[in-house]
Design the sequence.
């Protein structure tokens, strides 16, 4: 499988005729129970006077990023850190003997693909402590301009899932605020969130390093510390949502990888007015990748909680914005 790609993931919206969008807001989703459940929830949430009506100011939707909005084999943040670690080791050779730095330098792509968020944030702290926010943003933007997926050969920003881009647009068209709540680095995602997903940087929640105000000889800046401030993974996700939004989501989407989205989906679904919990199952080896948790924790939680589970193989007509 070798996809053909346009300049940006959001270009798929241009390719879809307006009349088709009006008739079917989710054209990349196959007709079936999952699509019906999504449309049914949004219809109930926006039908004033109905039992499922959600006032506009409460229509909050949160999305995990890696493996939910775009691919995560490898984790994009890990690929970025590969370049950063190489530069850091030139300054401190002792890091070359420590894991996960050693594996990064040896090109252990398998390890990078399985790294969890705490490991990634450890690398962030080691490589970016002391840098200003502006310096970090410049490095992240430079990475996205040149980096390509090792297997698919296209920019990472073109690997957003077409069905999820449509879902984001569909929710916004119905008065929902769409937020990212990811275990990945918050500042890393903010660099590309608006161009890739239509989500402004202020609506991105993620893991973060501590920061300090530095007057900088009359030029004040925010400087990143080599210490973790918040790990927005697993039980940290509801905490981050409360800190940034101040409202419980009524719609949330995650995926099956490390169990990192379970608590966010539980937090969304289990409330006086049941929310909608969507879990993406990576079961399409032909068009993307097939993988799952060893203990099956996310799928087990979905069965017990009555969440809606997406089979990428069965429920998505296409995966990426442009496919042959």
Sequence:
């Amino acid at each position: 499988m070798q996809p053909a790609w346009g300049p940006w993931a959001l270009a798929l919206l241009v390719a879809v005729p307006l009349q088709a969008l009006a008739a079917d807001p989710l054209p990349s989703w196959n007709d079936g129970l999952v699509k019906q459940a999504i449309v049914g929830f949004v219809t109930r949430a926006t039908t004033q006077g109905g039992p499922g009506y959600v006032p506009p100011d409460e229509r909050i939707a949160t999305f995990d990023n890696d493996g939910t909005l775009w691919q995560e084999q490898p984790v994009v943040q890990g690929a970025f850190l590969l370049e950063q670690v190489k530069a850091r080791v030139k300054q401190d050779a002792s890091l070359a003997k420590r894991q996960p730095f050693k594996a990064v330098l040896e090109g252990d792509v398998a390890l990078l693909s399985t790294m969890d968020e705490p490991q990634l944030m450890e690398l962030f702290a080691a490589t970016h402590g002391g840098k200003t926010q502006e310096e970090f943003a410049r490095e992240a933007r430079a990475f996205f301009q040149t980096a390509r997926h090792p297997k698919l050969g296209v920019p990472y920003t073109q690997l957003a899932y077409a069905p999820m881009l449509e879902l984001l647009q569909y929710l916004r068209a119905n008065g929902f605020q769409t937020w990212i709540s990811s275990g990945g680095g918050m500042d890393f995602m903010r660099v590309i969130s608006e161009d890739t997903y239509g989500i402004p940087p202020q609506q991105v929640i993620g893991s973060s390093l501590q920061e300090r105000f530095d007057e900088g000889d009359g030029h004040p800046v925010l400087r990143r510390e080599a210490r973790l401030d918040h790990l927005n993974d697993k039980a940290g996700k509801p905490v981050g949502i409360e800190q940034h939004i101040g409202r419980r989501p009524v719609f949330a989407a995650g995926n099956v990888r490390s169990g990192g989205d379970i608590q966010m989906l539980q937090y969304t679904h289990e409330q006086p007015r049941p929310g909608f919990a969507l879990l993406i199952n990576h079961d399409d080896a032909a068009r993307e990748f097939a993988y799952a948790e060893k203990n099956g924790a996310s799928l087990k939680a979905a069965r017990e909680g009555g969440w809606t589970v997406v089979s990428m193989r069965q429920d998505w007509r296409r995966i990426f914005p442009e496919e042959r």
Residues 250 and 272 are 11 Å apart (CA to CA). Strands lie at 60-63, 177-185, 204-214, 221-230, 251-255, 276-281, 308-311. Residues 76-91 form the longest helix (16 residues).
